[in-house]
Recover the amino acids of this structure.
């Protein structure tokens, strides 16, 4: 084919012209297809060039995951030099990892603990990828909402106020009465059910069973009310405390920024690629406990895959014994569990959705072990 | 204002000043509205409209370049880009004002022959989609490339048209009935080419920014060309009558045909050039042979009005170049600087020129009884259409 691009030498060019001319004879005997693609001469430079990029990769990765020093593409990432303004968002995915709300505690007659939490639903625009703004609905101005944490058997009271323009509820995964289920149409006569704008309601129940759970809004259209940001982790610790660990909350979420029923940006704790650019710092040999919650809407499954290591998996966190040693778990909507691991060697270890499409649309991060 | 006393105003001010008064008032009104921010109108209702047209896609090793234009009423900010469902680093992020254009350079290890869906994610979370059907490296715009495109243009434009013009001696020998048939045949050819130019123009315009008029540009181009040629024709007729130079008539029509066909061939060149740039063109003999057969008939159309004349060889060559070389130009533009709006306008102009030519040719198929659409001439028109239709099947790029 006569592409001048591949023929720096004029002789080659002449050959291709001759081919063009000589072809007249061929056309008489054969009828080739016109739309046929003509290969541009074998393997593309982009592929053959990956060898020397790999050298840059090792040095570049340490500085900025995503870009090598030569600018070569090491991982899917956002436009160079763009960053989310966490201050304007009012929350930081890294800080949310270890941010637990134990509520205001009070001892009840009989020795039980009452924990009171205050949650306010607000409409708020948040930045989910650098320069990409999403009109979210939030619990306490953050997505995901606060991680509410208590101990099995505690009395839990959540003072919920709705400062949003839309009706909302708080539906907790757990064992409680129907009136406290955050379900429109149930318990309206007691002030519950659908909580309209400006209204408030106290959800109150005993914390059971222990495990890693979640809460979310349950107003129709349900997928939209959840996907807009009204969800959070709800952790009930067992009475017999788990071993001391560096505990992290990871809420796997995504945003349908153009409202076409499919997500554009995937993440853990809202901001795409946040932990790729800001690796989670953990200590070597220390027990790490990840409370993993999947609230992904519009996609059936999500997953978590850890590199260069394995973890004990406790589905729903409802047992003190792990049921699997693995490096990958798959979670459907609303599924969650506890992952426990130790890193014996320092270094940077990736974790991401092994639904790799999500991984390259934001759901990728690193642990930095030191 | 002086308007209170129209009689005296008319007396004192020249007419052109009066003509400027509404313009001055308009300027004042515009300035006042702009300064006061459209009093009483308030803010816009609803969310900003984000319309982006992808004007050009170029692929280089490890890199995709998109030239985009803001086609809508509001500024648009491109924040992120995903290629094949993966976010990618790129340069060129930021706000693009109304009618503004920008080139986004994406780092991406694309693979030859594969197709890619590309999403531009705006600041509001909106997406603009585009696709690369089959990735192929864009040609470097060096001398060799322009040479190759020129060669292609000569193969499909200049050579076939010139060959077709060699029918001239034959045309001189045939009788008036056969000549009428040939003229009708030419009208059929031209009608087909004109329709093709309009359809292609609409198709191309539909793929580009609509803000400059979109497919309306095709009709604007056609109307402008038709009316301009009609005006030129009426001017020249007046001069010819004064000079009693009836002989120049056929030469003029031949030139018009050459121009119309030239603009049509520009379209063919564009198709070849842009297909080549996109890597979707099977270069080679079949393509060239197809175009040659198709375009040889165009040469016949140019010389048909010259049956009664003895034009110099130089003049014939010139006509061939007028009709053929735009294919070269088209191939260059198509591969290097494709602008859908300009192309739509040019194709429309080609169609307008062709329609004007058909109007000019119409009297030549009239027989002595004054009838135009006789069975013979209708058969001629059909033959022209059919020939181009059939040979057109050979050259779909």
């Amino acid at each position: 084919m006569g592409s001048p691009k591949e023929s720096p030498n004029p002789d080659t060019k002449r050959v291709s012209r001759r081919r063009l001319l000589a072809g007249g004879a061929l056309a008489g005997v054969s009828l080739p297809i016109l739309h046929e693609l003509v290969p541009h001469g074998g393997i593309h430079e982009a592929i053959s060039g990956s060898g020397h990029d790999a050298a840059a990769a090792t040095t570049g990765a340490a500085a900025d995951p995503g870009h090598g020093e030569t600018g070569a593409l090491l991982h899917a990432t956002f436009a160079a030099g763009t960053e989310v303004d966490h201050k304007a968002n009012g929350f930081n995915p890294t800080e949310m990892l270890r941010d637990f709300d134990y509520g205001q505690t009070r001892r009840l007659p009989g020795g039980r603990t009452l924990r009171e939490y205050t949650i306010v639903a607000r409409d708020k625009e948040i930045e989910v990828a650098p320069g990409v703004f999403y009109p979210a609905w939030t619990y306490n101005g953050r997505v995901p909402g606060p991680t509410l944490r208590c101990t099995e058997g505690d009395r839990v009271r959540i003072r919920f106020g709705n400062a949003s323009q839309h009706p909302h509820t708080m539906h907790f995964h757990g064992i409680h009465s129907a009136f406290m289920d955050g379900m429109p149409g149930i318990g309206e006569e007691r002030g519950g059910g659908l909580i309209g704008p400006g209204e408030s309601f106290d959800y109150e129940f005993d914390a059971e069973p222990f495990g890693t759970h979640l809460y979310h809004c349950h107003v129709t259209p349900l997928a939209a009310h959840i996907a807009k940001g009204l969800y959070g982790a709800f952790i009930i610790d067992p009475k017999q405390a788990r071993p001391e660990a560096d505990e992290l909350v990871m809420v796997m979420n995504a945003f349908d920024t153009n409202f076409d029923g499919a997500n554009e940006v995937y993440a853990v704790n809202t901001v795409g690629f946040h932990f790729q650019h800001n690796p989670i710092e953990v200590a070597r040999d220390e027990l790490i406990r990840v409370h993993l919650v999947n609230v992904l809407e519009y996609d059936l499954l999500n997953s978590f895959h850890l590199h260069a290591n394995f973890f004990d998996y406790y589905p729903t966190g409802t047992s003190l014994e792990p049921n699997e040693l693995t490096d990958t778990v798959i979670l459907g909507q609303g599924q969650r569990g506890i992952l426990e691991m130790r890193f014996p060697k320092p270094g940077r270890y990736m974790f991401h959705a092994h639904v790799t499409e999500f991984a390259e649309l934001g759901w990728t991060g690193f642990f930095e072990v030191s | 204002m002086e308007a209170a006393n129209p009689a005296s105003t008319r007396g004192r001010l020249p007419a052109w000043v009066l003509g400027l008064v509404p313009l001055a008032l308009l300027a004042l009104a515009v300035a006042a509205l702009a300064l006061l921010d459209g009093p009483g109108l308030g803010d816009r209702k609803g969310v900003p409209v984000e319309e982006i047209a992808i004007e050009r896609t170029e692929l280089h090793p490890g890199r995709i370049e998109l030239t985009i234009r803001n086609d809508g009423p509001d500024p648009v900010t491109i924040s992120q880009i995903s290629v094949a469902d993966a976010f990618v680093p790129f340069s060129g992020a930021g706000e693009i004002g109304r009618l503004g254009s920008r080139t986004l350079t994406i780092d991406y290890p694309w693979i030859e022959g594969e197709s890619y869906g590309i999403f531009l994610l705006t600041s509001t979370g909106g997406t603009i989609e585009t696709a690369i059907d089959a990735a192929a490296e864009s040609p470097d715009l060096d001398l060799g490339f322009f040479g190759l495109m020129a060669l292609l243009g000569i193969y499909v434009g200049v050579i076939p048209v010139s060959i077709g013009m060699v029918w001239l001696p034959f045309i001189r020998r045939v009788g008036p009935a056969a000549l009428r048939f040939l003229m009708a045949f030419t009208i059929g050819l031209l009608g087909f080419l004109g329709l093709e130019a309009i359809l292609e123009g609409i198709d191309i315009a539909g793929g580009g920014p609509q803000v400059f008029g979109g497919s309306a540009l095709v009709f604007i181009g056609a109307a402008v060309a038709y009316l301009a040629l009609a005006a030129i024709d009426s001017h020249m007729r007046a001069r010819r009558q004064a000079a009693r130079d009836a002989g120049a008539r056929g030469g003029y029509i031949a030139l018009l045909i050459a121009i119309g066909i030239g603009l049509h061939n520009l379209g063919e060149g564009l198709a070849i050039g842009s297909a080549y740039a996109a890597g979707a063109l099977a270069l080679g003999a079949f393509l060239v042979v197809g175009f040659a057969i198709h375009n040889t008939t165009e040469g016949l159309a140019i010389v048909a009005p010259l049956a009664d004349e003895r034009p110099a060889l130089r003049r014939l060559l010139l006509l061939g170049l007028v009709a053929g070389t735009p294919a070269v130009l088209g191939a260059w533009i198509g591969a290097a600087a494709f602008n859908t709006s300009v192309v739509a306008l040019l194709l429309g102009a080609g169609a307008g020129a062709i329609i004007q030519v058909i109007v000019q040719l119409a009297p030549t198929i009239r027989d002595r009884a004054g009838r135009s659409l006789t069975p013979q001439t209708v058969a001629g028109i059909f033959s022209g259409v059919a020939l181009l239709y059939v040979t057109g099947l050979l050259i779909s790029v």
